[in-house]
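Example record for the data management plan.
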Amino acid sequence: MPRHNTIMIYGAGEMASGVAVRLFRAGFRRLVMLETANPTCVRRPVSFCEAVPDGRALVEDIAADLAPNSTSIPGIWNAGRIAVLVDPDHHSRAALAPDVVVDAILAKTNLGTGPDDAPLVIALGPGFSAGRDCDVVVETNRGHNLGRLIYEGEAEPNTGVPGDIAGRTLERVLRAPRAGLVGDCLPIGSRIQAGDVTCRVAGTPVHAAINGVLRGMIRAGLHVPEGLKLGDVDPRGREEYCLTVSEKARALGGSVLEAICAHFLSGPAA
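Corresponding structural encoding:
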């Protein structure tokens, strides 16, 4: 079953990549991730969307290649790699006929995913209703229900507050103080102190609010709107955390794996 099912993942950012890693390690080899032409992820070392500007991305020990078109995807699969395709409107879905679609964009709203996108449609986070927009929703809010499969209804509403890491929430996130071009970015993994300039947006400095390690930073050269997340500071200070899939992304990947196995091995949940 695993090697012969085609799984299409909408998005190739941090959480989508955590899902892809879990599925790949479980034996699924026909994985294709659909991205925009200018991804804005911040945890770039653990996001397969880096294949868009670089041609290839490596997350932990798993490689993904940028596919120039949908016809090149089987060759990438045969080479033992995940395929990433610039296709934000999902035009390739008809040609690839996926067995499973996973909406892992985490836009907090449904950008167009429907129950007929594939025989099994899984959506991560708020903005979807199981039974209307998809077959199953995966809870993404940190806490007791993280990763729970919802077969009827919706995930918990978006709180607007980043997850707690070592007692820090809002203050660990770096946001654009204005619209403009991002530049002068510190490298991911840099040790920083509160008050340090982490990057600039249209010349305006973006200061860190806490001490820690720069766990994520958007790619320099992108034009961003005011308020966009640019990066995050990890107060735990562990540089190795910058290079590995987070516990949340890994948990969500396990939940997607459970939903797929439940559907194809046991039949859809009642």
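Summary line stored alongside the record: The first helix runs from residue 14 to 25.
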